[in-house]
Amino acid sequence: MTAIPGSRGTLVVINSTGRQTSSVIRVASAIGYKVRAQLRSATKGPKVALAQELASLQNVELVEGSLSDPNIVNNLFKGADVAFVNTTFWGDEVAIGTSLAKAAKEAGIKHYIYSSLTDHKKCWGNHLPHLPYWATKHQVEEYIRSELLKDMPTTFVYAGIYNNNFSTFHHLPLWELQLADEKDGGGFVWTAPFDEDYKMPFLDAEHDTGPAVIQILKDGPQKWNGARIPLAFEYLNPKEIAAVFTKALNRPFTYKKAGLEIKAKLPDGYMTQVLAIAELFGTHRAEYFPPGMTAPGPARKIWRGWRGLEEYAREVFPIEEAHNGRTWMYGDEEDEDIMDGDEDFDEEMAGSPENTVVGDEDTAIYNYIGDQKH
Predict the structure, then answer these.
(1) What Gene Ontology terms describe where this protein resides (cellular component) (predicted)?
(2) How many CB atoms neighbour CB 70 within 10 A?
(3) For residue range 299-314, what is the model confidence (pLDDT) as tens digits?
């Protein structure tokens, strides 16, 4: 594509159809970056429409291919200036993450932003469970810090829990909302293993990742080299979340602390992740971020136009539900369950705390109806 006047340089984005990465691409394209956007395929899988949207943006070039292919990796960063990298567990994530970082360093990338996550055993102690898909990201971060940071300025961002994890479908059991019967007042029931006062960090990944990452690039490595930045704009507990959804949708929202029934087929490795997350946050009430990281202050200073969960629930949640075939927002008394457990699994969701089965616990129920405040 032809460069637009005043181009800010070339930005490489990895796994470009993810929620974090697509947000970065949209903002970068809008303000004058040339974007080299890698993805596995633009013509196959559940994200073809998103790939087509990204390809239609000004100055965005899609690069199709596997990150396990050295030829793809070695050519991705040539002639580029900066990069935003969010790896997934497809393939050997540590090998892919380190090869990407080495290729970026060899190509002379001036600012590398890596989306990392907490290894709770290393950061908080061996008494905590091992989260395999988070630990691999942390291992890549450790490699960059020890081997490349002195030669390639790098910033590490840590995404909070995605607002759009909440869904009436089965692919994210920890965040699945059950549609309540209209004769019982309608609305939603959310069942999860969290204590009602356990606060969690939230991020509207599609709305806020892009502006935050672009501001970090604008500030440059002179401000952010080596820094860990928590991308979370609010901390909410289940009681507050119930109040937020009730206010936003004007529908009752019930939270129940109890065991979960997993209705979707999950890959074996992801099931291990799910069970560990349940223990980590449900039993141990562990901190989400590594020691020394506080939120939401840093993210709010970087990007002041963030979208909170209430605004998301009011303006976006019904649209996403309708797009996926739900009709409750139109006042239908019944909403057919169209998911059969065989739906495509979204690998990026492994990066958020979700989906689990917990043991028998006392049930704490918080029911919010009408305009009750929290």
Answers:
(1) nucleus
(2) 10
(3) 999 999 999 999 999 9
